[in-house]
Design goal:
The chain is an alpha/beta fold and 156 residues long. Helices cover 41% and strands 28% of the residues. The protein has one domain: Ribonuclease H-like superfamily/Ribonuclease H (Nucleotidyltransferase, domain 5), CATH 3.30.420.
Length: 156
């Protein structure tokens, strides 16, 4: 069983932000994080899950993902995302990331566990630290799809 702990953060929504991930399996432990100059909390929560899954080198693994994001967990477990796909993501945000998640999720047997954020859960707290720190580092990466979509909508 591979455990993936995730968190996303943004300072402002949108604003600079980042994600943090911990992967753990037996004695193996790895932390991942990246920061972006303009993004949203939900994008970072979802990207954390994606990056954690993409870091698994061997397909067909049993994976437990721990997240404090109701947005991510409910969208998957309540199967909303599959309805969004059928409707072409009409009026839905983060299409690029959801399509990326759906592709990488096919590689593994995934289950989700919701954890209450900022409630003393050690791995969730560490992922939050990683995400916040990543959003403050320089230089920040460019979330090009997000920035392009917002520029087209006149929001930037």
């Amino acid at each position: 069983m591979i455990e993936i702990f995730t968190d996303g953060a943004s300072s402002g929504n949108p604003g600079p932000g980042g994600y943090g991930v911990i992967l753990r399996s037996g004695q193996h432990y790895k932390e991942l994080s990246e920061g972006f100059r303009k993004t949203t909390n939900n994008r970072m929560e979802l990207l954390a899950v994606i990056k954690g899954l993409e870091a698994i080198k061997t397909p067909k693994q049993d994976v437990m993902i721990f997240s404090d994001s109701k947005y991510v967990i409910d969208s998957i477990e309540k199967r909303w995302v599959y309805g969004w796909v059928q409707k072409g993501f009409k009026d839905k945000k983060n299409k690029d990331l959801w399509l990326r998640y759906l592709e990488v999720s096919k590689l593994h047997n995934i289950k989700f566990t919701w954890v209450r954020g900022h409630n003393g859960h050690p791995e969730n707290e560490r992922c939050d630290e990683l995400a916040v720190a990543a959003g403050k580092q320089k230089p920040l990466l460019i979330d090009s799809v997000f920035e392009m979509e917002n520029a087209k909508a006149g929001l930037m």
